[in-house]
Here is the input.
Amino acid sequence: MPLVSSQEILRAAYEGHFAVGAFNANNMEQIQGIVDAAVEERAPVILQVSQGAIRYAGLEFAAAMVRTAADEADVPVVLHLDHGTDFDQNIRCLRAGFTSLMYDGSKAPYEENIRVTAQVAHMAHVCGIPVEAELGKVLQSTDGVTEEQVQAAMTDPGQALDFVQRTCCDSLAVAVGSVHAMKEAQAELDIERIKQISETVNIPLVLHGSSGVKEESEVEAIQYGISKINVATMLNQAFVKGLCQAIDEDPDNVDPRKWLTVSRDAVKEVARHKIRLFGSAGTVKGNGFASPSKSFRSANLGAIE
Ligand SMILES: [Zn+2]
Here is the structure.
């Protein structure tokens, strides 16, 4: 089916207490692995183009691959811009057919973040496209961050309502204990903070840096308003591990497709695991959504084992 906007699927996730997996679209094999998992699990899925993917594949090329994958799929697929750097890049993505945008002004002063986010949201809403914004800072593990820095960068629940009201953003990326690009799942999220923010703003919240978060903590966070969870590092790890194993097993092979098939399958299984964990498996019924039938929490914790 054609690409869909993230608006309805994130609202359905927020109200149904599940989360939609937002997976990074770096190359054809990763995109195919992710969408195959979503189709088999009957889940909506967000494919997001990061700044790294734009540098690697190019904006138009990445967008075209996701669009083709969506056309072939019979579950809702969203094409989302991850960590949009400025107003101009958001316009370029809108013209390239993105169905969900993000402006990340978290490094800018508060008023500047509001000003540009509001500008992006106004422009996107004219075209019927929703916008994710970021308040607080989700830091980078490559910068060698300390626990104190993570604490200090967290989203201030007291600012959240003012920010959402003045920017008109549709979803909010929050800094609640996760850090980008962590290679092991060790972090626990600040659930109290998530609760406070969610009760105030009443829009879908977004978790970045999920590869470094304990799965129990992710599942708990979904109960309190986390409705979109970004997964990048874990998929890259699966892709590279699959590739290395395939090369080890058949070092004389000269056909890259043989090795990349193993990588694609490895990505698919990680995406499937996350889709089940987030409770979005089975939520696509026909063209609409159905709430997960079993007790969400116990069903999801079962998926961790
Ligand atoms: Zn991020």
